[in-house]
Write a structure and sequence with these properties.
The complex is a heterotrimer of chains A (342), B (305) and C (527).
Chain A (H helix, E strand, L loop, with lengths): L10 H31 L22 H11 L5 H6 L4 H33 L2 H12 L10 H10 L27 H4 L6 H13 L2 H10 L3 H12 L1 H16 L3 H6 L8 H12 L7 H16 L4 H32 L4
Chain B lengths: L8 E3 L5 E3 L3 H32 L16 H7 L2 H21 L1 H10 L4 H7 L9 H12 L5 H9 L14 H10 L5 H8 L4 H9 L4 H28 L4 H6 L11 H10 L3 H26 L6
Antiparallel strand pairs in B: 1-2
Chain C lengths: L5 H15 L3 E5 L18 H12 L3 E5 L7 H10 L5 E3 L1 H4 L3 H9 L7 H6 L2 H4 L2 H5 L5 E2 L2 E2 L10 E6 H6 L11 H11 L5 E4 L4 H6 L13 E3 L7 E3 L5 H18 L2 E2 L6 H9 L3 E7 L11 H8 L3 H4 E5 L19 E3 L5 H16 L1 H14 L2 H4 L19 H5 L1 H12 L22 H12 L6 H16 L8 H22 L1 H19 L3
Parallel strand pairs in C: 1-2, 7-10, 7-11
Antiparallel strand pairs in C: 3-13, 4-5, 6-11, 6-12, 8-9
Helix pairs in contact in C: 1-16, 2-17, 16-17, 21-22, 23-24
Chain lengths: 342, 305, 527
């Protein structure tokens, strides 16, 4: 504990304390402001959403946007235009997101954590350095340029080509694996997560080697050391890693957009952000482009989808992330309780 | 559990543990590493190598592809806008790290001081609003030079002349980074790291009369050092690839003063100049690799160095 | 604009027969012709679905299937095309970067299906309106066609509040107005609660300098240079005085008059709501939004104020340059609909057949007639006018576009379609390039500095800088067109300009164009 128990009542310290709390509250406020904005917009009428400055409280709060989504998702919508835009009930999209994200987490957390532990505690010297660069080097290249090669690999692994080449001298194509248009197309590339690797390695590096040493002297395989000693200590960092990867995957847009084609495969992020991107033209520098973006927007407006509906979708998209945050937060704080620090 | 041999620990001067490795522990080490190696090779490095090869061709999306050698690299090397974008990116990265890196560490340290209930509540700080659209709208409104809230504060409350905010090429980078100061992103990681520090350390220091800051400096920070090193590594790698936020707010303007390398790269990809864009990406990759390696040497993170 | 109805139908039937011979599945990514839903909705089919069922009955061998492809995201669409998973239809602008050079590069690279056969079979060209055909460079290279036209946007212009102008006692603009006039209007219409004019962040470069033919890749700024590797060089300095006049006037409007609402983040989507909320009295936007009956476009403003649209909102093509030049920004803009290059012939036949039915023939009439009967509003029948097809009336609907949108607006459209759209387009003369060459970023940069940077800006230095950067970038590109072909094409192009300006703007021709043509262009092309 940084603050001495005894001196707590001292005015200088109290002042410092309250200043800190005040700054943190401002931070929380700014953080949550976009959420507040989303929620209130979902209860506004479409015309009000264009008001500037944005109204702080809806003038005539109404639930039409929520009802709209409810109707769209639970029954056949009578509006053909809506069905074009969101052909499946939201439950299907949510299911796909769940499969995709939990599948990836189930594989990625062990794979990445073990590799980080090995790099941190079982390797040393130059080989540890090289492997470190090997594992995080892929963070250093912008993903935009590996999009097409990676996509082609999901079609015809291991050939990054649109068509599988023929085995020389025969009429047969090489055997290939196609994970395109299945949840594996997201799960497998996510099986190793370089960012979480950094996270785990950083954390494992803080574990004093003496602890590992003692366990080794006592006897036991590395795996058991990991299981009995390191893992319980690392629950907080696993919680953080899970949270980061969950929110990144749940919200990921471009890769699922590219690798899924069947409308019953796409996750919720794609369904929602497809709509929102069509609606919010993000700074065209060219009048033709702007015109087309506006056309895409108008189609949505004709279907009855305006800002309020998009905000409802945005909220639905964010709720699972929020719930996961609450869960991970508990595990993060578990470390505190376990050690009886409070 | 039966052992073939008892490993004998040897302490090297820098404190790393080396053991006479048993056959079993070597097998285990590779068992831990191999799945990650396979995935990273096939989905990480393989596409990168393909992209690199494509940068040496004319990279038509629907072949046939012809080899052009270093033509794309020459072209972007001789392009003044390439260097401008590197300059912008460097400034952006440095400013971003200086302004936004330290705060989350202290926020995490201070949060650990609070009662569990308060702590839980305050942790909402890190529930990042991931709906980019809302955040964009919010900050566009705040920065609007005519009726934005910041302009109101500047002119009506602080009595300054009207400020340009995003419209000035000198100030635009600062204003783009400003929201990041209040987003305490990696704080959760530091909290996880701080869990492991036994109370007794603080109590002992207390007894010895250590002040508030001294305790942080001698106990909290050293313990967090490897984690800070990792997050700093990531901050460097990430800020040099800044794209989403400046792209959606200013599109690189005014005067190209907010155009980062990745933004320029995207504009090339959008003009069907895939080979040129990839060449620029590879160039950026090399720069990041060099900077990261130098940084790790300097900070001597590797105990065996 | 009257079409020949009967021969076209005959040709259509012939190709229909061809389509009937093979089993075809069209994969549709929700646009522009979504498949019928699995179950009939409660209220029955809407206008579009009824038309679609009619076509499907005529073509029983065709199945339509929904797929999810990000056709509005350029990276996702390009990836799908590269990987062979593209849908049947998409907008070529998404991968062609929304300009003629980009579109033609996409066609040359084989990213879009070649539809020449289908154009012949269905006699598409005979059915298209003149204004659609004036934009041929957008969808064709030479005799090869690569895209079909679903919608026409007849050019950009300025929307203005008629009622506010009348209140201020000002005359309405005519097609011959200039930016000095705009400045007057904007100043008069600016009040405490409202600014005169809203513009996109690229407004100065595109509208104001574009009106003079300056900047970017425009008439006076891009000079043929066959001796260089890329065949073009940029010149942003010869007309320095003109640049300074325009830029200083803009900055005066922005900083002194305070009549412009614009910053680096302004886009189409952000200024339209400003017009709707009456924060501005004028806005620069494409003309097709006049003919959209939905939020947040002028139609909704009229509804809010409870008056007919013709009383509240006016539209005029872009002002002319002070030197008399006509702004080609008011030309027709056609991002064509392209098709998956992997389509087999019978699939292309089916896809074009559907297009033909829906936009050029009975399907179009049916949809519009039903929309009119449903709403009772003639505007719904004549939405998104002018039509791609030559026939501009609708079977079963009594009324014309002029009845729907007002004679004034139609007069402006006619002017834009007639005079302005005859502006010679480079893509029709010079063979296209596979690569688009240097990006316009250097010009965009200085244009935004001129627009927004506070204080003083050194116009001459910045223009020189932009020019140098672009020429330096161009040195890294080699044109794939031979010097011979280039000179021949460029010569024809500038001669077309010579004829055009002599006809539509004699003063400009005498005083500005011809001297420049003789001293700069003719020597460059060895004429």
């Amino acid at each position: 504990m940084l603050f001495p128990k005894v001196g707590r009542k001292e005015p200088r310290l109290r002042f410092a304390w309250y200043t800190v709390v005040a700054i943190l509250l401002v931070g929380i406020f700014l953080h949550l402001l976009p959420f507040y904005f989303m929620i209130t917009t979902s209860f506004k009428s479409a015309a009000e959403t264009f008001a500037i400055p944005p109204t702080i409280w809806p003038e005539n709060p109404n639930t039409s946007a929520w009802e709209f989504i409810f109707n769209v998702t639970t029954a056949n919508s009578t509006s053909a235009q809506v069905r074009d835009i969101m052909p499946q009930p939201i439950g299907i999209y949510a299911r796909n997101s769940v499969i995709m994200v939990f599948g990836a987490l189930a594989i990625s957390l062990p794979v990445t954590a073990f590799a980080a532990y090995a790099n941190s505690k079982l390797q040393s010297g130059r080989s540890a350095r090289w492997f470190f660069l090997f594992f995080i080097g892929t963070l250093m290249l912008p993903g935009a340029v590996t999009l097409i090669p990676s996509f082609l690999l999901t079609r015809n692994f291991p050939f990054p080509l649109p068509q599988t080449p023929m085995i020389p001298g025969t009429e047969n194509p090489f055997p290939t694996v196609r994970i395109w248009d299945t949840p594996w197309a997201v799960i497998i590339p996510a099986a190793f997560n370089a960012f979480n690797f950094l996270l785990f390695k950083g954390f494992f590096d803080t574990i004093p080697n003496s602890i590992i040493q003692a366990a080794r002297v006592d006897g036991g395989s590395e795996f058991n050391i990991f299981r009995r000693i390191v893992f319980p200590m690392s629950i907080p960092v696993f919680a953080v890693a899970t949270w980061f990867q969950f929110s990144a995957l749940w919200d990921s847009f471009l890769w699922p957009l590219v690798v899924f084609q069947s409308s019953d495969q796409i996750p919720m992020s794609v369904a929602v952000y497809n709509l929102i991107n069509r609606f919010a033209s993000a700074g065209a520098t060219n009048s033709q482009q702007a015109m087309m973006q506006s056309q895409a927007m108008t189609e949505l407006l004709d279907a009855g989808i305006g800002w309020p509906v998009l905000m409802v979708l945005g909220i639905l998209q964010t709720i699972p992330i929020f719930l996961m945050f609450l869960v991970c937060r508990e595990y993060l704080l578990k470390g505190v309780r376990l050690r009886g620090l409070r | 559990m039966a052992q073939e041999t008892v490993p004998v620990p040897i302490q090297s001067p820098a404190g790393a543990v080396t053991t006479q490795v048993t056959h079993r522990s070597r097998v285990e080490k590779w068992a831990f590493l191999t799945p990650a190696i396979l995935f990273q090779l096939s989905w990480g490095w393989y596409p990168m190598v393909v992209a690199f090869i494509l940068s040496l061709t004319d990279a038509r999306p629907r072949g046939p592809i012809s080899f052009t050698g270093l033509q794309s690299y020459q072209r972007i090397w001789n392009d003044p806008l390439t260097w401008q974008s590197f300059q912008v990116t460097a400034i952006y990265a440095v400013m971003s790290i200086i302004l936004t890196f330290m705060i989350p560490i202290f926020v995490a340290i201070l949060l650990m001081e609070m009662k569990p209930r308060t702590m839980r509540w305050m942790m909402l700080l890190w529930f990042l609003p991931l709906s980019g659209i809302s955040t964009t709208i919010l900050w566009r409104y705040l920065y609007n030079a005519q009726y934005g809230l910041f302009q109101y504060i500047a002119t009506d409350i602080l009595g300054l002349p009207p400020q340009p905010f995003l419209n000035s090429s000198d100030q635009v980078l600062f204003w783009l980074i400003f929201p990041g100061i209040l987003l305490f992103g990696p704080g959760l990681i530091y909290m996880a790291g701080l869990q492991g520090i036994p109370q007794s350390y603080y109590e002992a220091a207390e007894v010895e009369g250590a002040s508030f800051f001294r305790k942080i400096w001698t106990i909290s920070l050293p313990r967090l050092r490897p984690i800070i090193s990792m997050t700093l590594t990531f901050a460097i790698i990430g800020s040099l690839q800044a794209f989403d936020w400046p792209q959606i707010m200013t599109g690189g303007q005014p005067g190209g003063a907010s155009r980062t390398v990745v933004m320029y790269l995207y504009s090339m990809l959008g003009s069907l100049r895939y080979a040129d864009g990839t060449a620029l990406a590879i160039l950026l990759f090399l720069v990041i690799m060099v900077i990261t390696t130098i940084y790790r040497r300097v900070f001597r993170e590797d105990p065996d160095a | 604009m009257i079409a020949a109805g009967v021969p076209a139908m005959a040709a259509g039937s012939a190709a229909n027969t061809r389509a009937q011979n093979a089993e075809v599945t069209l994969l549709i990514a929700g646009w522009p012709y979504p498949p019928l839903p699995a179950e009939t909705p409660e209220g029955g089919y809407d206008a579009y679905q009824q038309a679609l069922s009619m076509w499907l009955e005529q073509n029983p061998n065709v199945r339509m299937e929904s797929v999810e492809v990000g056709i509005w995201d350029s990276a996702a669409l390009l990836t799908a095309i590269a990987g062979g998973t593209a849908p049947a239809y998409f907008s070529t602008g998404v991968i062609g970067n929304w300009n003629v050079a980009g579109l033609q590069a996409a066609y040359l690279q084989g990213l879009v299906a070649n539809l020449s056969e289908q154009f012949d079979a269905f006699a598409i060209d005979d059915k298209l309106s003149e204004i659609a055909k004036s934009g041929r460079a957008n969808y064709a290279i030479g005799d090869d066609e690569y895209g079909v036209i679903n919608e026409i946007a007849p050019g950009n212009g300025i929307y203005y509040r008629r009622d506010l102008l009348a209140e201020a006692g000002l005359e309405e603009p005519t097609v011959d107005w200039t930016w000095d006039d705009v400045r007057e209007y904007a100043r008069a219409l600016t009040t405490d609660a409202r600014k005169g004019l809203a513009m996109q962040s690229y407004g100065l470069g595109s509208w104001e300098l574009g009106a003079e033919g300056l900047g970017g890749d425009r008439l006076f700024s891009r000079i043929p240079d066959p001796s260089s590797s890329w065949n073009w060089r940029w010149d942003y300095t010869t007309q320095l005085a003109d640049y300074e006049a325009v830029i200083n006037r803009h900055r005066a409007m922005a900083f002194e008059d305070g009549s412009i609402l614009s910053d680096v983040t302004s886009s189409d989507g952000s200024i339209a709501p400003q017009f709707l909320n009456q924060e501005v009295a004028m806005m620069t936007n494409p003309s097709q939004f006049y003919t959209r009956a939905s939020d947040p476009w002028p139609y909704m403003l009229a509804q809010q104020l409870g008056k007919p649209m013709e009383e509240i909102v006016g539209f005029m093509s872009h002002p002319r340059g002070v030197n008399g030049h006509l702004s080609p920004e008011s030309r027709v803009v056609i991002p064509p609909t392209g098709m998956n290059p992997d389509l087999r012939t019978e699939e292309k036949n089916a896809a074009v057949s559907l297009y033909n039915f829906m936009e050029l023939e009975e399907g179009f009439d049916l949809r519009r007639r039903l929309a009119y009967e449903e709403s009772g509003d003639l505007k719904r029948a004549f939405e998104i006018y002018p039509f791609p097809r030559a026939k501009d009336t609708i079977d079963g609907v009594d009324g014309t576009a002029a009845d729907a949108w007002g004679a004034d607006f139609l007069a402006v459209l006619d002017y834009m379609a007639g005079v302005i759209s005859r502006y010679p387009e480079l893509g029709l003369f010079v063979p296209p390039e596979e690569t688009v060459g240097p990006t316009g970023a250097a010009w965009d940069d200085v244009a935004s500095t001129f627009s927004f940077e506070p204080g003083t800006v050194d116009i001459a230095t910045l223009l020189q800088q932009a020019q140098d950067i672009r020429n330096q970038q161009a040195a890294g590109f080699t044109s794939s067109v031979s010097d011979e072909d280039f000179i021949a094409g460029a010569t024809a192009y500038y001669q077309a300009h010579d004829a055009y300006w002599a006809e539509v703007a004699p003063d400009f021709y005498e005083n500005t164009f011809r001297p420049w043509y003789e001293s700069v262009i003719m020597p460059a092309l060895g004429m």
